[in-house]
Design a protein that fits this description.
alpha/beta, binds Double cubane cluster, single chain, globular, 17 helices, 52% helix, four-stranded parallel sheet
Length: 380
């Protein structure tokens, strides 16, 4: 009998359930005594915990359930991502936080930095000092932070991160990145082979997989099947999403846009920002290669932030984008200020329509988003 091949909709729904299902995997994992590292940001060089034998799981929370509990300690007018992440940790409702042996944070935005101080009251936390420029001096500082993280991991997990283990981890993470790129690049087809919602569900679920070799294989196979199946029948305007991470707002934002368009590209963390650049596997100095690759991430906490502009320009061209939508989470100062520069580049330099929306994790603005984003896509 031939091997059972899952239907594509089943594959999409498995990925969308991944976050929830991995709770069980994480529990199993812990029972076997394997270490788990919790992460809050794309700047974490995941290869280092991997080389220490640990799996990495994202702790950024995506629901507003525990925000009231967070607001007992943190100000109300704070980014929902920070409040939700802290709230889940404080109320012990996030099993990933609960199972994490060590949480690693980076000095990105002020809100996150200060939140780590609260978190350290109930969890071991290692904060990496991330410089906010991408100069050569900054690179050396960041590289020294990678060595500091190496030492912290070795001490906590009683292991040695050898060069060999680290290079193996670099190769494995690159393999996962390549397969992610293969998968989301299928959206360059016009019309795309799947909806933006299906695409995002896979992107969102993939980081909750611990079996990285299988994940890479499955994503590559999925990409091949999508190419074979071909485009969706109807042509619609093609949207690129940029801005803050959208894990907590994607359902309402993508559904509003896909009333009459396709979201074909995700520049945010969770999409291309986190995956598009590989680590130089053959570099003589693997720490420097890692430091360079991670420091290159185009987050708005960098100033200036040319890499975000470069990536956006390339994606707008490669994905034949008709409109750019920037999602800013409420009170996120750096993305909010930078949105003015993004608007200038997108509309003036590239002549592509642009809209910026500010939102939070509640559903209160769903109707308003449908109206605003619906009007935007209608005019494309
Ligand atoms: S690399 S985008 S994951 S910092 S939205 S908490 S910036 S106030 S999440 Fe981010 Fe790393 Fe950058 Fe990506 Fe602060 Fe803004 Fe909230 Fe943010």
């Amino acid at each position: 009998m031939g091997e059972y091949i899952k239907e594509l909709p089943d594959v999409f729904s498995e990925f969308s359930e991944q976050r929830r299902q991995s709770f069980l995997t994480a529990m199993e994992y812990k029972k076997q005594g394997k270490p788990l590292v919790g992460a809050f940001c794309t700047y974490l060089p995941m290869e280092l915990p991997l080389a220490a034998g640990a799996s990495v799981v994202s702790l950024c929370s995506v629901s507003d359930e525990t925000i009231p509990a967070a607001e007992q300690d943190l100000p109300r007018n704070l980014c929902p991502l920070i409040k939700a992440s802290y709230g889940f940790a404080k109320t012990d409702k996030c099993p990933y936080f609960y199972f994490s042996d060590l949480v690693i944070g980076e000095t990105t935005c002020d809100g996150k930095k200060k939140m780590y101080e609260f978190l350290s009251q109930f969890k071991p936390i290692h904060v990496m000092e991330l410089p906010h420029t991408q100069s050569e001096q900054a690179l050396q500082l960041w590289k020294s932070e990678l060595y500091r993280l190496k030492a912290a991991l070795e001490e906590r997990f009683h292991t040695e991160i050898t060069e060999e283990k680290l290079r193996a981890a670099v190769r494995l993470r690159n393999q996962v990145r390549r397969s992610m790129i293969e998968f989301y690049d299928t959206m360059q087809m016009d019309p795309p082979p799947m909806s933006g919602m299906d695409c995002y569900n896979v992107l969102n679920g993939a980081p909750f997989r611990f079996d990285l070799e299988n994940l890479a294989k499955e994503l590559t196979e999925l990409a091949a099947r999508l190419r074979e199946r071909g485009s969706l029948p109807e042509r619609k305007p093609r949207i690129l999403l940029t801005g803050c991470p959208i894990g907590g707002v994607y359902k309402k934002v993508i559904s509003a846009l896909e009333q009459s368009a396709y979201v074909v590209a995700f520049e945010n963390c969770g999409g291309a920002k986190a995956t598009h650049e590989l680590v130089d596997e053959d570099a003589d100095d693997i720490y420097e290669a890692l430091a360079r690759r991670y420091l290159n991430i185009g987050c708005s906490c960098m100033t200036p932030n040319p890499n975000r502009m470069t990536l956006l320009r390339k994606m707008i061209e490669d994905y034949k984008i008709d409109g750019v939508v920037e999602v800013v989470l409420q009170t996120c100062l750096t993305y909010s200020v930078e949105s003015g520069l993004i608007r200038q580049m997108v509309t003036k330099d590239l002549g592509v329509p642009y809209i910026s929306i500010e939102t939070d994790y509640s559903m209160a603005d769903t109707a308003q988003l449908q109206t605003r984003l619906g009007a935007f896509t209608e005019m494309l």
